[in-house]
Fold this sequence. Notes:
This protein has helices at 2-6, 9-29, 33-57, 60-79, 88-111, 114-141. It is mostly helical.
Amino acid sequence: MYATSMFSPRRAAQAAASYQATGLEIQVAGADAHRLVTLLFEGFDASVSDAQGALQTQDVERKCRAITRAMRIVDEGLRQHLNLSAGGALAQDLNELYAYVSSRLMLANARNDSEMLGECKRLMRPLHEAWVAIGQKTEVSR
Protein backbone atom coordinates (compact mmCIF):
# COMPACT_ATOMS: atom_id res chain seq x y z
CA MET A 1 0.00 0.00 0.00
CA TYR A 2 2.81 2.43 0.85
CA ALA A 3 4.56 1.82 -2.46
CA THR A 4 1.34 2.43 -4.38
CA SER A 5 0.70 5.81 -2.76
CA MET A 6 4.36 6.77 -2.97
CA PHE A 7 4.42 6.36 -6.75
CA SER A 8 0.95 7.56 -7.69
CA PRO A 9 0.78 9.64 -10.88
CA ARG A 10 -0.11 12.73 -8.90
CA ARG A 11 2.83 12.37 -6.50
CA ALA A 12 5.16 11.64 -9.39
CA ALA A 13 3.98 14.79 -11.17
CA GLN A 14 4.47 16.83 -7.99
CA ALA A 15 7.98 15.45 -7.54
CA ALA A 16 8.84 16.19 -11.17
CA ALA A 17 7.52 19.75 -10.83
CA SER A 18 9.60 20.22 -7.69
CA TYR A 19 12.76 19.05 -9.44
CA GLN A 20 12.00 21.28 -12.44
CA ALA A 21 11.43 24.29 -10.18
CA THR A 22 14.72 23.66 -8.40
CA GLY A 23 16.52 23.34 -11.74
CA LEU A 24 14.95 26.57 -12.95
CA GLU A 25 15.96 28.39 -9.74
CA ILE A 26 19.55 27.29 -10.28
CA GLN A 27 19.45 28.48 -13.92
CA VAL A 28 17.97 31.85 -12.95
CA ALA A 29 20.48 32.41 -10.15
CA GLY A 30 23.42 32.11 -12.52
CA ALA A 31 21.89 33.69 -15.61
CA ASP A 32 22.76 36.92 -17.35
CA ALA A 33 20.02 39.23 -18.68
CA HIS A 34 19.96 37.53 -22.07
CA ARG A 35 19.53 34.08 -20.54
CA LEU A 36 16.74 35.34 -18.29
CA VAL A 37 14.73 36.52 -21.28
CA THR A 38 15.37 33.18 -22.99
CA LEU A 39 14.00 31.44 -19.88
CA LEU A 40 10.90 33.65 -20.06
CA PHE A 41 10.27 32.61 -23.65
CA GLU A 42 10.80 28.96 -22.74
CA GLY A 43 8.46 29.31 -19.78
CA PHE A 44 5.82 30.91 -21.97
CA ASP A 45 5.99 28.09 -24.49
CA ALA A 46 5.86 25.43 -21.77
CA SER A 47 2.92 27.13 -20.06
CA VAL A 48 0.87 27.39 -23.25
CA SER A 49 1.66 23.75 -24.10
CA ASP A 50 0.58 22.78 -20.59
CA ALA A 51 -2.68 24.70 -21.05
CA GLN A 52 -3.32 22.91 -24.35
CA GLY A 53 -2.73 19.57 -22.66
CA ALA A 54 -5.06 20.53 -19.84
CA LEU A 55 -7.76 21.41 -22.36
CA GLN A 56 -7.44 17.96 -23.90
CA THR A 57 -7.85 16.28 -20.50
CA GLN A 58 -10.50 18.80 -19.41
CA ASP A 59 -8.44 19.79 -16.37
CA VAL A 60 -9.87 23.27 -15.83
CA GLU A 61 -7.74 24.14 -12.81
CA ARG A 62 -4.49 23.22 -14.56
CA LYS A 63 -5.56 25.11 -17.70
CA CYS A 64 -6.28 28.26 -15.70
CA ARG A 65 -2.96 28.04 -13.83
CA ALA A 66 -0.99 27.50 -17.04
CA ILE A 67 -2.68 30.35 -18.92
CA THR A 68 -2.27 32.67 -15.94
CA ARG A 69 1.43 31.77 -15.82
CA ALA A 70 1.78 32.49 -19.57
CA MET A 71 -0.01 35.84 -19.17
CA ARG A 72 2.25 36.82 -16.26
CA ILE A 73 5.32 35.96 -18.30
CA VAL A 74 4.12 38.19 -21.13
CA ASP A 75 2.85 41.06 -18.99
CA GLU A 76 5.27 41.10 -16.07
CA GLY A 77 8.32 39.47 -17.56
CA LEU A 78 8.48 40.71 -21.15
CA ARG A 79 6.13 43.64 -21.64
CA GLN A 80 6.75 45.46 -18.37
CA HIS A 81 10.49 45.65 -19.02
CA LEU A 82 10.30 47.22 -22.46
CA ASN A 83 11.94 50.63 -22.60
CA LEU A 84 9.27 52.43 -24.63
CA SER A 85 10.97 55.83 -24.41
CA ALA A 86 14.34 54.63 -25.72
CA GLY A 87 13.29 51.57 -27.72
CA GLY A 88 11.60 53.40 -30.56
CA ALA A 89 9.31 51.67 -33.02
CA LEU A 90 10.58 48.18 -32.20
CA ALA A 91 9.71 48.55 -28.50
CA GLN A 92 6.29 49.93 -29.40
CA ASP A 93 5.64 47.05 -31.83
CA LEU A 94 6.66 44.52 -29.18
CA ASN A 95 4.42 46.24 -26.64
CA GLU A 96 1.46 45.96 -28.99
CA LEU A 97 2.25 42.33 -29.81
CA TYR A 98 2.53 41.43 -26.13
CA ALA A 99 -0.76 43.21 -25.40
CA TYR A 100 -2.43 41.26 -28.21
CA VAL A 101 -1.01 37.92 -27.06
CA SER A 102 -2.12 38.62 -23.50
CA SER A 103 -5.66 39.45 -24.61
CA ARG A 104 -5.80 36.31 -26.78
CA LEU A 105 -4.64 34.20 -23.84
CA MET A 106 -7.42 35.64 -21.71
CA LEU A 107 -9.97 34.94 -24.42
CA ALA A 108 -8.61 31.42 -24.99
CA ASN A 109 -9.02 30.77 -21.29
CA ALA A 110 -12.63 31.98 -21.29
CA ARG A 111 -13.51 30.03 -24.44
CA ASN A 112 -11.39 26.93 -23.81
CA ASP A 113 -9.90 27.51 -27.25
CA SER A 114 -6.76 25.52 -28.05
CA GLU A 115 -6.46 27.16 -31.48
CA MET A 116 -6.09 30.60 -29.87
CA LEU A 117 -3.40 29.18 -27.63
CA GLY A 118 -1.65 27.83 -30.72
CA GLU A 119 -1.87 31.28 -32.31
CA CYS A 120 -0.14 32.78 -29.27
CA LYS A 121 2.67 30.24 -29.53
CA ARG A 122 3.05 30.92 -33.26
CA LEU A 123 3.26 34.67 -32.63
CA MET A 124 5.87 34.35 -29.90
CA ARG A 125 8.02 31.66 -31.56
CA PRO A 126 9.84 34.00 -34.02
CA LEU A 127 10.76 36.32 -31.15
CA HIS A 128 12.09 33.41 -29.13
CA GLU A 129 14.09 32.10 -32.08
CA ALA A 130 15.51 35.55 -32.85
CA TRP A 131 16.44 36.06 -29.21
CA VAL A 132 18.27 32.72 -29.11
CA ALA A 133 20.06 33.57 -32.38
CA ILE A 134 21.22 36.90 -30.95
CA GLY A 135 22.69 35.06 -27.99
CA GLN A 136 24.50 32.60 -30.24
CA LYS A 137 26.03 35.43 -32.26
CA THR A 138 27.14 37.16 -29.10
CA GLU A 139 28.80 33.98 -27.81
CA VAL A 140 30.61 33.44 -31.12
CA SER A 141 31.95 37.01 -31.20
CA ARG A 142 33.46 36.77 -27.70
